[in-house]
Structures are given as structure tokens and as C-alpha cells.
Recover the amino acids of this structure.
């Protein structure tokens, strides 16, 4: 009997059937031995029925029925950010552990209330992004911990995209939480925290989204014009508790395809890291008197689909690893890696930058967080990528 099989499966329900739900549902059903996906719920029952039928999930439930169920232990919340608070609160009050997509909530006060409820009821919360458990970021952390580029002194991260045009295709981006720092920048902030630890203080400058006139006439249901709420261009500076200084540059008022950069500078060398919005970001190390070297992955969860036919968002193909890690934490009685403290700290960094933009003052963070790295040496494929392996063992 393997070390995975000795754990009782965690009965799990998914709430929310939006665009990212397919990859979550498929992976939770087929990829992770610890998860028993038993139910799908959505505000639209027709949407839930369609997903359940597509993936062979036995039960279609209302959100209230999930809360009232006796057997469901873990709820995966894939709803838009502006309803996270109410869904997570309802599930916690019903005695369920919760994994929620990013952001945790839209305000620190709401997140603090949810944390308090979870602690009173001895429940766990996990918060996306779970890409920080992927091959790219975990490999980067492994090399950083080895000291190969010395002591990290500074870093630079940047993402540029046409967030306004994207909000025509993905209408949830037109709501609170749809601006680029919260929709895309959270992956960079989450990765920085996983690699470097807690942020001490932040400061920033910002600009709002542009007023956007509808361009994609074939996409039905959009208004004639709108403005994404919040800061959509951000230039910021982060000071970490370990003294590392990082510059942030997020521009959602850009045009064309997405452009990203993630680089850390050390006393012995530099490290470039691929897009933390994905699981397979390349790690490239540059040392003096050497050509830059693409480093081999030391971990699994590289985003490649090893469980069936191609489908949308296969490039993000290990969505759900954070759910599985939470499930093992439940069974082992330990702290989960993408903890409520992690989710809160990521959110406080971004909201702190907004506060700095508003006041013109440095924002001192109140929260702290640490993401324990996964064990290296467990991969998602074997024999040249032809056969599925079991990176799930690294979660135990």
C-alpha cells in the first residue's frame, strides 16, 4: 500500500461553473488520489447540471444544499471575487474547510472576519494562486535555497496586457477585482512571497483603467462602454523583511499580447523566472563568466496534461494542486501551505499599494506569511514525458 492510499479521501464539492471550472473539475476528479469530488453547485442549476453531466459527477446541488450536507468536508469556491466573502462565510459556518480562488475577498475586514470564524471552528482556508506549488516556482525556490545565486538583493516583476479588451471576453473583469493588480498581479505577489517570505512595507503610484468602448461586436451582453474599477496601472516598491527590494510594474492599459518579466538579483548571480500565472515557468540562472543556463525542474506539477483529451486551459493544467495539498493537511492535522495567512498577506500587499497610492505614504504591513516548499524529486511524468508519474507524493 502506497503512502498516498493510506489516507481517507476527502469528500469535496465545487461551487462555481465559470470558465476556469473545467480544468479544476477534471483534475480534482481524475488527478488527485486524496480528493473524492462528489458534487457540483452553482447559482444557475442548469450550469451545474451541464458540468456534472460533462464530467460524470453524481450530485448537482444548490449552494445551500452543499452547506447543509453531512458528508462534504471541503468546498472549492470558484465564484467571482466580489462574492467570495458570502460563499466562504456560509461554508465555514456550516463546518466546511474551504479553498477559494484569488482574491481571498475584496477587503481586509471581510478576510479578518473569515479568519476568525475558521479559527473558532478549527477549520482551514486555502487561497489561490496555487501556481506557486507548480514546477516553476518550486524549482526556483529550491535553487534559491541552495545559495547558487547568493544572497538576494533585489528583484523586478512586470506584466503588461490589454485588460480592458480582455474584459469584453471575460465579463467578470468588469467588476471589483478585475483590474490587473488583482487579476494578474496577484500571481507575481504570491510567487514573491513564496520565494522571499513576508513583505514589510510597500509604496506605489497608480492610475485607473481607461474608459473602454465595446470593440468585440460578436460578444453579446456587454454595455456600450465601461471602466474597470480600481488601479489598472501600478508602479510599486516592496521591501521584504529579509531586506530584499522588489520593483513592481503592472500595466492593464497596454495593447497587444501579454508581456511578462520576473527576475531576482543576487550577490553571486541572477535568476529569471517564467510567468507565475502558469505552472511551467522556466528558471534561467546567469553566473559570471558563464552563458545563462535553463535549469532542470526539481519538482512536478509542470502544467502538462497527463489525464485525458486536450481541453481549454490545459496550459494551466495542474489547477487544483492547492486543493489537494489542503486535503492532505486536513488528514495530517497540519498547517496547509496556501494558508489563510498567505491569502491575507497577498491581499494586504495589493491593498496596501492602493492605500499608498491614495495617501502618498508608505504602507506598513500588519500580516506575515510563509509558504513551506514542497519536497523535490517527485515529477508529473516519466520516461521522457510519455507516462504519468505521481507528483502528488510531494504534497504529503
Amino acid at each position: 500500500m502506497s503512502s498516498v492510499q493510506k489516507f481517507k479521501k476527502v469528500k469535496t464539492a465545487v461551487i462555481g461553473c465559470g470558465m476556469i471550472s473545467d480544468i479544476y473539475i477534471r483534475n480534482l476528479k481524475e488527478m488527485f488520489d486524496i480528493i473524492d469530488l462528489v458534487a457540483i453547485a452553482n447559482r444557475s442549476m442548469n450550469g451545474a447540471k451541464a458540468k456534472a453531466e460533462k464530467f460524470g459527477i453524481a450530485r448537482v446541488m444548490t449552494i445551500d444544499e452543499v452547506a447543509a450536507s453531512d458528508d462534504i468536508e471541503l468546498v472549492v469556491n470558484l465564484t467571482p471575487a466580489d462574492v467570495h466573502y458570502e460563499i466562504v462565510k456560509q461554508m465555514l459556518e456550516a463546518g466546511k474547510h474551504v479553498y477559494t480562488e484569488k482574491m481571498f475577498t475584496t477587503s481586509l475586514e471581510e478576510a479578518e472576519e473569515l479568519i476568525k470564524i475558521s479559527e473558532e471552528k478549527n477549520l482551514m482556508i486555502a487561497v489561490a494562486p496555487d501556481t506557486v506549488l507548480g514546477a516553476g516556482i518550486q524549482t526556483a525556490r529550491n535553487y534559491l535555497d541552495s545559495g547558487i545565486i547568493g544572497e538576494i538583493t533585489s528583484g523586478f516583476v512586470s506584466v503588461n496586457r490589454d485588460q480592458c479588451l480582455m474584459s469584453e471576453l471575460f465579463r467578470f473583469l468588469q467588476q471589483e477585482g478585475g483590474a490587473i493588480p488583482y487579476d494578474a498581479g496577484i500571481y507575481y505577489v504570491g510567487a514573491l512571497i513564496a520565494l522571499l517570505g513576508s513583505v514589510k512595507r510597500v509604496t506605489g503610484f497608480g492610475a485607473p483603467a481607461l474608459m473602454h468602448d465595446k470593440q468585440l461586436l460578436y460578444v453579446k451582453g456587454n454595455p456600450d462602454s465601461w471602466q474597470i474599477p480600481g488601479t489598472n496601472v501600478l508602479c510599486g516598491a516592496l521591501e521584504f523583511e529579509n531586506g530584499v527590494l522588489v520593483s513592481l510594474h503592472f500595466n492593464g492599459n497596454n495593447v497587444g499580447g501579454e508581456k511578462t518579466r520576473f527576475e531576482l538579483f543576487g550577490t553571486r548571480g541572477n535568476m529569471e523566472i517564467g510567468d507565475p500565472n502558469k505552472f511551467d515557468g522556466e528558471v534561467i540562472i546567469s553566473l559570471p563568466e558563464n552563458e545563462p543556463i535553463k535549469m532542470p525542474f526539481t519538482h512536478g506539477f509542470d502544467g502538462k496534461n497527463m489525464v485525458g483529451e486536450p481541453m481549454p486551459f490545459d496550459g494551466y493544467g495542474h489547477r487544483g494542486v492547492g486543493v489537494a495539498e489542503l486535503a492532505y493537511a486536513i488528514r495530517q492535522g497540519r498547517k496547509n501551505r496556501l494558508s489563510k495567512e498567505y491569502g491575507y498577506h497577498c491581499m494586504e500587499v495589493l491593498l496596501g499599494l492602493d492605500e499608498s497610492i491614495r495617501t502618498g505614504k508608505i504602507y506598513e504591513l500588519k500580516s506575515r506569511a510563509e509558504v513551506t516548499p514542497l519536497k523535490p524529486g517527485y515529477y508529473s511524468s516519466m520516461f521522457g514525458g510519455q507516462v504519468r508519474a505521481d507528483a502528488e507524493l510531494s504534497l504529503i
